[in-house]
Amino acid sequence: MDQENLSFKLCQSCQQEIPLSNKFCTNCGQSQVIIDGQFHEKKWLNLQQVGLFFLVEILCCASVFLVKEHTLSFLYFIDGVMAISAVIFFGYSWAENKVILKWPSFSLQKLAGLIIATILASIVVTFLVDHLNRDILNKELSYYSIFEFHKYGTYLMFASMALYPAIFEELAYRGYLMQKLLTVVDEKEAIYISSILFFIIHFSFLSIFWLLPFALFLGYLRIKTKTIWYGVFVHFFFNLTACFLDLFPLEDLYKMIF
Amino acid sequence: MEIPTHSFCNACYKAYAPNDSFCNSCGYPLQGTPQQQDFFISERTVKEIDLSSMNEAVRKAGNSLFWIAGLTALSFLFILATVAEEDRSSILIANTFLVVAFLALGFLSRSKPTAALISGLSLYLIIHILNAIDNPLTIFSGIIFKVIIIGYLIKGIKAVLDADKLKKELNID
């Protein structure tokens, strides 16, 4: 008897018992699939908000090309604008977004494993990128060159190359963007979209072989763990390793040891 | 529990039980007057036509991604003739990447339209913003074409969302 009851439900409008699999009530014809018109209206609105956010990001990143001389203060100004916009957009839908700032089922083991894997991956990627830049484009890429004239250059470099993107890019892309996209599309597509947007905002086509997988991994991590913090740590250690190798190239380390 | 099936619904061709007043999968008034039944069918047809026009908009938006790929390749050939020798390899790499990217997004738009169209639109906008920073006059070259393409892409994204809603209403998976 109980089992039979389980396969029935009550119609939302005439309260008649109908089989659970019915999409419409066989008694009054009322649809049993709840279609929330407002919810659908909101989807388009959410996408427009995402569009506005991404336009701000594009303009900030593109403005770097507008000036000829890259000074530190200009760089920090742009970083500041982007950080503030990320926080504003995130905070605007605070009620929906605050859940991902929590850290449910914190696992030190998992975090340590991720960090070690990240550092190893970062070493491999930095090595490949160095060679790619040298062999194909014939140019040396150094993050440090813009910081080296400053008294605290190394610290500033670590702050703006590792700490800043880890916190604010994660907040913006895996935080705000992902939350908004999840209201519009399913999890898989949300990962794809946020990763592709994250990749193209870096304006570096050659980095597709590592930046896109990296972004996909961060997106996957964010969906699986329902928190941005693992992503923040992974992103931080990835960039930190790259900065470290920029200051102390692998070849030098190799010579020092052997 | 098996429901004895006797007939099939006039609107969605699914089986229904003899004492049902409405079809359980589309809501068709099985015991209603012919007028009610005709009204239901015409309402459903209108929605189905809407749906097919939305799918058409999505398809067109996907096609415009292929158009972008083709035009990028074409304009690349013109650029190649005018630039200096030493710039050619980097322009070749960048353009090949863009053509491949838009082709890939075009194919992706058949299975994952939202992801492909949003990414395609963003990439297209970024390219033109960067071009405009490099040389402001590029905004005006082929501006009608750019506006049409952007219009198709935005319409396509909106159509995906509306089609999702209609599919739910019509109970099509």
Q: End-to-end distance of chain B, in Å?
A: 25 Å
* Alpha-carbon distance between the two ends of chain A: 78 Å
**Largest sheet, strands/sense/barrel of chain B:** 2 strands, antiparallel
Number of strands of chain A: 2
Secondary-structure element sequence of chain A? HEEHHHHHHHHH
Number of helices of chain A: 10
Give the rounded overall mean pLDDT of chain B.
85
Major beta-sheet overview of chain A: 2 strands, antiparallel
Radius of gyration of chain B, whole Å: 24 Å
- Overall body shape of chain A: elongated
Per DSSP E runs of 2 or more residues, the count of β-strands of chain B stands at 2
Strand content of chain A: under 5%
Strand order of the largest sheet of chain B: 1-2
Q: Compute the gyration radius of chain A: what is it?
A: 24 Å
What average pLDDT do the residues of chain A reach? 83
Beta-strand fraction estimate of chain B: under 5%
How many distinct domains of chain A?
2
